[in-house]
Amino acid sequence: MESIKVISYQSKRVLTTQQLAEGYGAKSKLISKNFNNNKERYEEGKHYIVLEGEDLKKFSSESPNLRLAKNINKLYLWTENGAFLHAKSLNTDQAWNMYEKLIDTYFKVQDLKEVPSSPRELAKLALAANEEVNERVDMIDTRLTEIEENKSITTEDYGTIGRNVSKKVHKIISERHLGLEARRLLFTDLNSSIKQVFNAPNRGRIKDKDFESVLDFIRSWEPSSVTNAKLKELGD
């Protein structure tokens, strides 16, 4: 494994087709043929990365130890998952043995910066870690708050609101000596008012935090001018 030069792209270790071929005891053409014959099994970004144009030039300039053909216009870089698919497709003892070595000593190596040893650097590292933890805690707290704010009423509270709506409608009918025809108009008006005021598509979607406010709204609710006009027509 020492003979394989370490290549990284966007902080991920990768292998060129030539490196993969040498490690698996095959020719580069066989690796390419194997890829083309099983292309539907490979996913770009997951199994391989294709570099062309400016991306290829930049990568080449940042990898002076990597020898590439002068006229190359496209470069395939294979990830750990891609190397696995090639080993599986080739299905030779050498390919599998090489893949085990890649797993143990190449892809699993942590590309970490040198651990700081001075008190100042250790303190900076601790502060950075603490800040990251605090950010995650804040995110969790925010999410929990959002969940709590948007939690809908329970089935029991839904029933309570329904009973209060019926009670209010029947009270208005009784006080105004209205007939049964008025019942539908009042129910429709009151339910519509609740949905508009508390921004709920239906009573089951009323937020738990608004439960008491909804009950207060129902108690003080009066029919709209349009509903009153229709009720008057019914009386006439």
From TrEMBL:
Annotated ranges, domain ORF6C: 124-230
InterPro entries: KilA-N_DNA-bd_domain, ORF6C_dom
Protein's recorded name: Antirepressor
A UniProt-annotated Pfam family: ORF6C
Domain KilA-N DNA-binding: 5-89
Species of origin: Floricoccus tropicus
